[in-house]
């Protein structure tokens, strides 16, 4: 009996304070009753609904404070892989765009090249991911060249890695996608 009185008093307090009694939170996952984390969600949109319902980010779903919850989770996309390939027209995005990279987000900037597609992080000067098609039709025989240069297609606000950035560091610039897989068209 006392639990019911407690709940009734709590509901009255919430109503008097102008707060929701939870009816708008009815479509949220059960983890909101304990402790949600990104592993409780299948998609980024599911996590985003919880962050939107609790803007104080009590479950720590927005690790970098940019207003997007659990950004590493896959995006909900109702189109099929074939539809995505047709929509982008890029063979390297045949199976989708893993982070929904685009030309507006400088830390998830989409670059589409004939040889590959990638999401570039302008803040760190590194790729978030790279995708390329590899089959026999891409293979050829071209000698390795040492012709590293900044990508001219990056926006002016982006940090573009320069050849000297790695000098003396003990690290090699490397390749984001293997050059041997792009030799046939002279793209290596």
What does this structure look like?
The chain has 188 residues and is of the alpha+beta class. The protein folds into two domains: 31-76, no CATH class; 96-185, Extracellular Endonuclease, Chain A (3-Layer(aba) Sandwich), CATH 3.40.570.10. It contains three helices and three strands. It has a three-stranded antiparallel beta sheet with strand order 1-2-3, with no helix packed on it. A hairpin with a 4-residue loop joins strand 1 (109-112) and strand 2. The longest helix has 16 residues, at 2-17. The radius of gyration is 24 Å and the shape is elongated. The model is unreliable at 17-23 and 78-86 (pLDDT under 50).
Tell me the CATH architecture of the largest domain: 3-Layer(aba) Sandwich
CATH topology of the largest domain: Extracellular Endonuclease, Chain A
Supply the helix-strand structural class.
alpha+beta
Sheet with most strands: strand arrangement = 1-2-3
What separation lies between the terminal Cα atoms?
Answer: 76 Å
| Proportion of beta-strand residues | 5-15%
Largest beta-sheet characterization: 3 strands, antiparallel
């Amino acid at each position: 009996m006392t639990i019911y009185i407690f709940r009734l008093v709590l509901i009255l307090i919430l109503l008097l304070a102008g707060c929701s009694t939870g009816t708008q939170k009815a479509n949220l996952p059960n983890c909101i009753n304990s402790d949600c984390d990104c592993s409780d969600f299948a998609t980024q949109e599911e996590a985003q609904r919880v962050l939107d319902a609790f803007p104080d980010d009590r479950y720590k779903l927005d690790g970098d404070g940019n207003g997007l919850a659990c950004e590493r989770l896959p995006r909900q996309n109702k189109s099929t892989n074939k539809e995505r390939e047709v929509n982008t027209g890029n063979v390297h995005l045949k199976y989708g765009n893993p982070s929904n990279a685009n030309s507006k987000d400088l830390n998830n900037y989409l670059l589409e090249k004939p040889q590959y597609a990638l999401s570039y992080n302008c803040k760190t000067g590194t790729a978030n991911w790279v995708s390329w098609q590899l089959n026999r039709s891409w293979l050829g025989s071209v000698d390795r060249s040492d012709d590293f240069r900044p990508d001219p297609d990056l926006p002016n606000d982006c940090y573009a890695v320069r050849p000297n950035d790695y000098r003396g560091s003990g690290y090699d610039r490397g390749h984001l996608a293997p050059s041997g897989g792009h030799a046939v068209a002279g793209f290596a």
